[in-house]
Amino acid sequence: MVKVKFETPEVRPYPVIPILKPDVMKGNGPFVAKPPMQEALGYPGELVDNWQEVAIDKMGDLLGKYRSLRVYLDSCVKCGACTDKCHYMQGTQDPKNMPVARQDLLRQVYRRYFTLPGKLFPKLVGAKDLTKDVLDDWYNYYHQCSQCRRCSVYCPYGIDTADISMAAREILDTVGKGQKYCNEIIGKVFKIGNNLGLPEPALRDTLEGIEEDIKDETDIDVRLPLDVEGADILLITPSADFFAEPHVDGLIGYAKVFHQAGVSWTISSHASEAANFGLFIGSYENMRQVALRIREAAIDLKVKRIVFGECGHAWRVAYSFLNTLAGPFDFLDQRYPIPQHICEFTYDLIKQGKLQFDKSKNDDRRMTFHDSCNVARASRMGDIPGGQFMIPREIIKATCNHFYDMPSDTIHDETYCCGGGGGLLTDDLMELRVKGALPRMEALKHVVETNGVTHMAAICAICKTQFSKTLPFYGFQMDQIISLHQLVGDALILEANDN
Amino acid sequence: MGFWTEFYALSFYLATLILLAGLAHKIYQYAKTPAPLKVPTMPAPLTQRGVVLRVLSEVVLFRSLFRANKWIWLFGMLFHAALWLVLMRHLRYFTEPVWTWVVLIQPIGQYASFAMMIGLVGLLVRRIFVERIRYISSPSDYLMLILLLVIGGSGMMMTFVAHTDIVQFKAFVLGVMYFDWQAIPTDSILLVHLGAILLLMIIFPFSKLLHAPGVFFSPSRNQVDNSREKRHVAKWAIKKFESK
Question: pTM for this structure?
Answer without folding.
Answer: 0.95
